[in-house]
Amino acid sequence: VVDYFGVRPKSGEKEVTPSYVFMLWYEFCNDFKSAWVRQSKNLSKELKEAQENIKKITAEKKVETKKINANSLKDRLRQKEASVSSS
Q1: How far is residue 67 from each of residues 1, 54, 61, 64, measured CA to CA in Å?
Q2: Which positions are tagged coiled coil (predicted)?
Q3: Residues in contact with 51: Cβ distance below 8 Å, sequence separation at least 6, in sequence order
Q4: DSSP category for residue 25
Q5: Could you give the C-alpha distances from 74 to 59, 64, 68, in angstroms and in order?
Q6: Residue 18 contacts residue 2 (beta carbons within 8 Å)
Q7: Would you say 68 and 74 are in contact if contact means Cβ atoms under 8 Å apart?
Q8: CA 52 to CA 32: how far, in whole Å?
């Protein structure tokens, strides 16, 4: 394992001890965990901001409805559908 990762002994020592390897591994894991937590918090914050922006944008848009002309094609189709479904 030591050769695979290329761990060198400390200056003044001849061999790499298991405690030294695990100390390095522990430090790496802690750094990775803190970076992971920080990144996940940033992503969740960005997601919440994006959801709020979408809500604001959709709230700002107002849908206008127009009255349908009495003899328009749409009105005649609706009347025909209503008479067919009531039969």
Answers
A1: 77, 29, 20, 10
A2: 33-83
A3: none
A4: H
A5: 29, 17, 8
A6: no
A7: yes
A8: 30
CA–CA separation, 17 and 20 (whole Å): 5
Work out how many domains the chain is built from and give that number.
Answer: 1
Residue reference for tokens 């189709």 = 77
Total-model pTM: 0.51
Tokens 């479904």 found at: 85
Distance, CA of 84 to CA of 29 (rounded, Å)? 70
DSSP one-letter string for 26-62: HHHHHHHHHHHHHHHHHHHHHHHHHHHHHHHHHHH--
- Spell out the per-residue pLDDT of the chain, length 87, in tens: 677 777 787 777 788 888 888 888 899 999 999 999 999 999 999 999 999 998 888 887 776 777 777 788 888 888 888 888 776
Contacts 24+ apart (CB under 8 A), 26-29: none
